[in-house]
């Protein structure tokens, strides 16, 4: 049998597998929520703790260092303790850190708890796409894998919406709210709720069949395959288990040394994953979701209007992610990435041009008519282009592009690289903004153009390919 295809009747989508993938994708919701909730706190924390541009950049981005650590070790944790137990570890880290961030008394306490939260986000960012890819039928794996990105953008939306609501109730992010705590503290504390839900929902879903086979538990793997792939015949189950065993036989317990190869010390597919991750961040998307409220406020919009604009942008992000889910298994991964890169390049270049027309500087910066509305439209076009392509598609590819024997470890490395790139972009944006927003967005436009050529030359299409058939 060709490993790249599954005969009719042997594998089909079931409501069960969709529900399982949706539960696992809640890790993506926490990812989006915990990385974006900081958006509404930037100005209040900066004023309350008297921070300069470098310090507020650290406060916003330090979680990403924790995310890199969490992502780096997530693969090892998943291979040692299983995918489900690793999800529960992420939920605990995120819940505890959400409470800690809301009760801090200074910058360094906030940095500590943000790093802890980041570790939980990093673990969730690796384990969710790996688990979803491992329990999904090949014909809908792209759509189920895109649930991770849908959950991320929903998490971003809920974080920004809750920020806006809490600030509205309190009359401002810096004002006192419930129990005498400032509103920005409650923006962090509400993160306990989704962390608890994620931990609880990870209990009843089944373990990954590939982890079960690797752990010498083939009968349990057969039962999971029977349920999630709807395989009816014993012969079909036998063939599937044999495929998994064959793909894992060379490396029963993969480690980082298995990533070594001829291209600067790594396998070519590992470099492709790393560069996809880095470029996904270097186009500057998280500047929109970490700093947009402060950004729009700085160019003349009121605090309330800035929150409203940010929430509206997150709604756009959710809607275009739904479009991506509908297209990823029909159009393919590579065409979506190419189209997204082209669109982002144009939109970012337009944003750079708009901000080149700005007058004043710092908090006195303003965009004369008609450049403010044009910049706002360009920013949302940029989000559309990213949301329909590089947002979901990179996570789909990272979950499926690596061979079985190195998937968890290689995904951990690629995700760690993504978090480090995210940190580099997020921590430098306040300083770049002081140099000039036109320069900052021009730089991101250049990386968007680079991403176009990279995908054209280096990325292989994986639509419809079985995980067991992924080449190195």
What series of H and E elements makes up the topology? HHHHHHHHHHHHHHHHHHH
CATH topology: Growth Hormone, Chain: A
Could you tell me how far the N terminus lies from the C terminus, measured between alpha carbons in angstroms? 20 Å
- Give the averaged pLDDT, no decimals: 81
Overall shape: it is globular
Structural class: mainly alpha
Unreliable spans are 1-13
User: Measured on Cα atoms, how large is the radius of gyration?
Assistant: 22 Å
Major sheet size, sense and barrel closure? none
Number of domains: 1
Task: Output the CATH class name.
Answer: Mainly Alpha
**Total beta-strand segments:** 0
Helix content range of the residues, please?
A: over 70%
The name of the CATH architecture is Up-down Bundle
CATH superfamily membership: MFS general substrate transporter like domains
Task: Tally the helices.
Answer: 19
* Beta fraction: under 5%
Write up what this structure looks like.
With 472 residues, this protein is mostly helical. The protein has one domain: Up-down Bundle (Growth Hormone, Chain: A), CATH 1.20.1250.20. The chain contains 19 helices and no strands. Helix 1 runs parallel beside helix 4 and helix 3 packs parallel to helix 5. The radius of gyration is 22 Å and the shape is globular.
Give me some keywords for this one:
19 helices, single chain
């Amino acid at each position: 049998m060709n490993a790249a295809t599954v005969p009719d009747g042997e594998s089909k989508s079931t409501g069960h597998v969709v529900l399982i993938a949706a539960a696992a994708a809640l890790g993506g919701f926490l990812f989006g929520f915990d990385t974006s909730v900081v958006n509404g706190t930037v100005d209040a924390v900066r004023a309350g703790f008297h921070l300069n541009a470098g310090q507020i950049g650290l406060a916003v981005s330090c979680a990403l260092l924790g995310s890199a650590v969490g992502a780096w070790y997530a693969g090892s944790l998943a291979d040692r303790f299983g995918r489900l137990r690793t999800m529960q570890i992420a939920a605990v880290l995120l819940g505890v850190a959400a409470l800690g961030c809301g009760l801090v008394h200074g910058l360094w306490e906030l940095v500590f708890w943000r790093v802890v939260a980041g570790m939980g986000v990093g673990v969730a960012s690796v384990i969710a796409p790996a688990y979803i890819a491992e329990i999904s039928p090949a014909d809908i794996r792209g759509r189920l894998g895109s649930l991770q990105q849908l959950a991320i953008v929903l998490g971003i939306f809920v974080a920004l919406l809750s920020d806006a609501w809490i600030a509205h109730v309190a009359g401002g992010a810096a004002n006192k709210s419930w129990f005498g705590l400032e509103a920005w503290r409650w923006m962090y504390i509400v993160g306990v709720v989704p962390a608890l839900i994620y931990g609880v929902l990870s209990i009843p879903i089944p373990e990954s069949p590939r982890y079960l086979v690797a752990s010498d538990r083939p009968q349990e793997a057969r039962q999971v395959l029977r349920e999630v792939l709807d395989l009816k015949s014993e012969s079909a189950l036998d063939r599937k288990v044999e495929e998994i065993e064959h793909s894992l036989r060379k490396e029963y317990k993969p480690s980082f040394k298995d990533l070594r190869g001829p291209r600067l010390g790594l396998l070519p597919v590992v470099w492709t994953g790393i560069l996809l991750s880095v470029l996904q961040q270097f186009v500057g998307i998280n500047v929109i979701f970490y700093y947009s409220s402060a950004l729009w406020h700085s160019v003349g919009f009121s605090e309330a209007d800035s929150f409203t604009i940010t929430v509206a942008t997150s709604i756009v992000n959710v809607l275009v992610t739904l479009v991506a889910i509908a297209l990823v298994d029909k159009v393919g991964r590579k065409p979506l990435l190419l189209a997204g890169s082209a669109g982002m390049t144009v939109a970012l270049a337009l944003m750079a041009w708009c901000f080149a027309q700005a007058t004043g500087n710092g908090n006195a910066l303003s965009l004369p008519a008609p450049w403010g509305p044009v910049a706002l439209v360009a920013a949302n076009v940029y989000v559309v282009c990213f949301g329909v392509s590089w947002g979901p598609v990179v996570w789909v590819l990272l979950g499926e592009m690596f061979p079985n024997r190195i998937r968890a470890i290689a995904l951990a490395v690629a995700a760690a690289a993504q978090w480090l790139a995210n940190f580099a972009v997020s921590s430098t944006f306040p300083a770049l903004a002081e140099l000039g927003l036109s320069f900052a967005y021009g730089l991101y436009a250049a990386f968007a153009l680079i991403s176009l050529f990279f995908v054209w030359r280096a990325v292989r299409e994986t639509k419809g390919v079985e995980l067991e058939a992924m080449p190195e």
